[in-house]
Structures are given as C-alpha cells and as structure tokens.
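Lab manual, section 2.4: Encoding a predicted structure.

Procedure: take the sequence of the chain (245 residues), apply the prediction step described in section 2.3, and record the output as structure tokens. A sample record is shown.
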Amino acid sequence: MVDNDGPAPTSRRRHILRLVVFAAFLVALFYLLAVRHVVDIEDVRRAVKATGPAAPLTYIVVSAVLAAIFVPGSILAASSGLLFGPLLGVFVTLGATVGTAIVASLVGRRAGRDGARALLGATRADRIDALIERRGLWAVVGQRFIPGISDALASYTFGAFGVPLWQMAIGAFIGSAPRGFAYTALGASIGNRSPWLAYSAIAVWCVSAVVGAFAARRGYKHWRGHTRRGEDGGIPDSDREAEAH
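Recorded output:
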C-alpha cells in the first residue's frame, strides 16, 4: 500500500527550500532595519507631519509597513506619542500594530505556509492546526506580553502556521495594549516633559513584562506536558505512575 500522508519528496524539498529562502530574507531585513537602523525615524516623522490633518492615518499605514520590515516597534510607538500625544498616540500605535500583524501574517502565510507543513509533516501539521483553532488567539495575545520577542517575526511565524487573520488582528490589539501604551507614553513624556507620564509608562511596562514572563513559563510547561502526553500515547502522568506500581 502506498502512503499518501505527506507530499512527494521533490515537492517537499521545494517547499522547504522556499521556507529557508524566506527565512534568510527576513534575517537580512532584520539586520538592516533592526540592527543597522538604515531607516531614519526623524525623516519619517517630518514626512508624516507634512501630511497635515491626515497625519494620524498616514502614520498608521507607514508605521505598520515599517514595523513589518523590522523597524523596532518601540521606536515607532514612541514616535507616535511624540507626534500625537499620549491619547491619540496610543490609538495610532495600536492601529499600526494591528496593521503590522495583518501584513506580516499574510506574507508569512503566502511565503511559508506550504514550507512549514512540509517541514512538520502532515500529521504533526494537522495537530498544530487543531491546536491553533482552539488557542490561536491567546497564543497571539500571550506572545505580545513576552519581552524581547519581535512582534513582526512572531506574526510571520503565526502566518506560516496558519493562524487566522481575525485572531491575529484581535490578539495583536489586546496583547499590544499595555506595551503600546508604555512606549507611546514615554514618547509623549519627552514632548510634554511630564515625569508622571514617564513613571506611569515604566510601571505599565514592568507589570506587562512580569505577566509575560509568567505566561511564557506556564505556556512552556503546558507545551512540555502536551508533548510528553503525545509521545506516551496520550496517557496522563497519574495513570503512568499507577501502571509503574
């Protein structure tokens, strides 16, 4: 009998090669824009200011695209606060964040979905699809709370794994709200010279970082337990201990 569970070897190699090329392209973008800072944010702010009343909408679009190509989101959010103040700036930041999540997810799905499934294999990919269907939204929310992880890179990855766009948009909005406020308020505090705004921003950032660290630890333990149950045929730990005695 012929096993038709996975793609043909040639097709699988092609999909994996496409995924590797896409990953290399993202690494190059990350180096140029997040490490070397080839985009001058001051020039961006001047160009946005020149659009007059349309500046908030203009900045949402520009910031969404720039963040998707790895311009640091913290700098973009701070610039939003500097341009528009703490109140309007937060909504501009969140609008841009949702835009980045949608753009990066779409690109990741288009460029990496087939490669990710080929790399994982049909059975494991179907298992991940089922898990995403149940918990994809909260995976996006949780990732946004974890400090040190590029939101754009995570969005590309979520897209490659098939997280639906509505989960990306809502998850990015909910999960990015605390850090979005923190960075935007910090930027606004520079313009307003308000120490209390800066203190509030730092406090919110610290709380969200602590919550993110606990969420990451709990998620890792849950993933380890899920993986262990899968390797043992779904037998709970208590049942295995009983069998051992």
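Check your result against the sample. Residues 9-244 form one domain.
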